[in-house]
Design brief:
With about 190 residues, the protein is an alpha+beta fold. Helices cover about 35% and strands about 20% of the residues. It contains six helices and seven strands. The strands form two sheets. Strands 1-4-5-6-7 form a five-stranded mixed β-sheet, with helices on one face. Strands 2-3 form a two-stranded antiparallel sheet. Strand 5 and strand 6 form a beta hairpin. Helix 1 crosses helix 4, helix 1 packs across helix 5 and helix 3 packs across helix 5. The two termini are about 25 Å apart.
């Protein structure tokens, strides 16, 4: 898919093109987040609930909204791209923002098994091992989710054009290359 324009327009184009996949992924991944006291604030509203009240129905929205302040630290255009993705796909903004944090939330090994989605496999080789006097970088998308990665040609209104590989619901580049040859592969 080729997308272009402002960050909002790029997100909206992805949302329109892959809305069903985005909504399915959000439902599937957020369902993996079981109630875990470590993910909840220890004070405030939840601490004031009587023990006989099950906070399960509200924990996911609380977790998502607790991550909202981190948008201030996100790179330029992240909010707008995510807003465009939400508008284009019909998925809720906070659910999509929560999905961006799933790798961080799953990184802690003392969570139950539903939090432990493994990351993708990456490899790098240099020189003769790369088959030339060069650098070879490879990454596959081998986590257990039933998803197809998407190759996106992105032509932003400002900045350099680039190609990235990812999922339609992920915001930000983790694997890609710009028109100057700068390559990025992040886990």
């Amino acid at each position: 898919i080729t997308v272009s324009g402002t960050p909002y327009a790029i997100g909206q184009q992805l949302g329109v093109a892959y809305g069903d996949r985005v909504r399915h992924a959000m439902t599937d991944y957020t369902a993996r987040l079981k109630v875990d006291p470590k993910t909840l604030p220890q004070g405030g509203f939840l601490a004031s609930l009587p023990r006989f009240i099950d906070p399960s129905p509200i924990t996911l929205p609380l977790l998502a909204s607790s991550l909202r302040p981190r948008l201030a630290d996100a790179g330029p255009g992240v909010f707008d791209e995510l807003k465009g993705l939400a508008d284009g796909s019909g998925a809720p903004f906070d659910g999509l923002w929560l999905m961006q944090w799933l790798p961080v939330l799953t990184e802690t090994r003392d969570r139950d098994t539903l939090f432990n989605l493994p990351f993708c496999t990456m490899v790098a080789a240099v020189g003769d091992r790369a088959g030339a006097d060069d650098l070879l970088i490879g990454r596959n998308f081998d986590w257990p989710a039933d998803e197809e990665p998407v190759v996106m040609k992105v032509i932003p209104r400002e900045g350099r054009p680039y190609i990235q590989i990812g999922y339609p619901w992920s915001v930000g580049v983790f694997t890609g290359m710009n028109d100057a040859g700068l390559t990025l592969a992040v886990e």
